[in-house]
């Protein structure tokens, strides 16, 4: 829990009373590998902070193919924030890639924190901005680079994840087939 509080304190000042209040609203959630944190077609009901594990954001394209577009690992927030805040139906899935342990907040509790702690909106705004910048930084090389360079970029940004994530998810994230990814990996050894 201390790691979570330290994470929050990177984005703003909170006193002990405020952090105690935040933690009083927190619940622990364990997800088994392949279980969903949030599902397309349902309203997201939690925002979470990942203590252990890896999750992925994915959707199905118009051909029915599963597309992974984002991974989140330990010590990061997990949410479909826009849909969570608006309480509207999600269009993508957030799925556990490994067994996961999270600190979660319901919409009611999240709103209560926001209505109680002055400056909470500024803190969460900075966290969201940080998450978006990380996502853009990680995704940008995937747009214009060849498959080998995309894999090397993935390896650079997610060195600890390469052996924790199924190759099919990595291939989907990189926009290549699993066979192409296997060839690239073999060539780089």
UniProtKB/TrEMBL annotation:
Native source organism of the sequence: Pedobacter psychrodurus
SUPFAM superfamilies membership: cAMP-binding domain-like
Cross-referenced Gene3D superfamilies: Jelly Rolls
Ranges where the Cyclic nucleotide-binding domain occurs: 30-113
Positions of transmembrane segments: none
Pfam families registered for this protein in UniProt: cNMP_binding
Protein's UniProt name: Crp/Fnr family transcriptional regulator
């Amino acid at each position: 829990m201390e790691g979570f509080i330290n994470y929050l304190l990177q984005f703003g000042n909170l006193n002990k009373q405020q952090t105690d209040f935040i933690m009083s609203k927190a619940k622990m959630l364990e997800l088994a590998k392949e279980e969903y944190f949030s599902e397309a077609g349902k309203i997201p009901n939690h925002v979470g902070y990942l203590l252990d594990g890896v999750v992925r954001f994915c959707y199905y394209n118009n051909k029915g193919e599963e597309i992974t577009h984002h991974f989140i690992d330990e010590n990061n927030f997990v949410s479909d924030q826009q849909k969570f805040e608006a309480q509207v139906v999600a269009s993508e899935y957030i799925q556990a890639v490994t067994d996961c342990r999270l600190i979660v907040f319901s919409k009611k509790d999240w709103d209560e924190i926001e209505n109680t702690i002055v400056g909470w909106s500024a803190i969460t705004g900075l966290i969201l901005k940080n998450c978006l910048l990380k996502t853009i930084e990680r995704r940008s090389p995937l747009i214009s680079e060849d498959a080998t360079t995309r894999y090397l970029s993935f390896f650079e940004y997610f060195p600890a994840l390469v052996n924790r994530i199924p190759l099919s998810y990595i291939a989907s994230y990189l926009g290549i087939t699993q066979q192409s990814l296997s060839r690239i990996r073999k060539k780089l050894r």
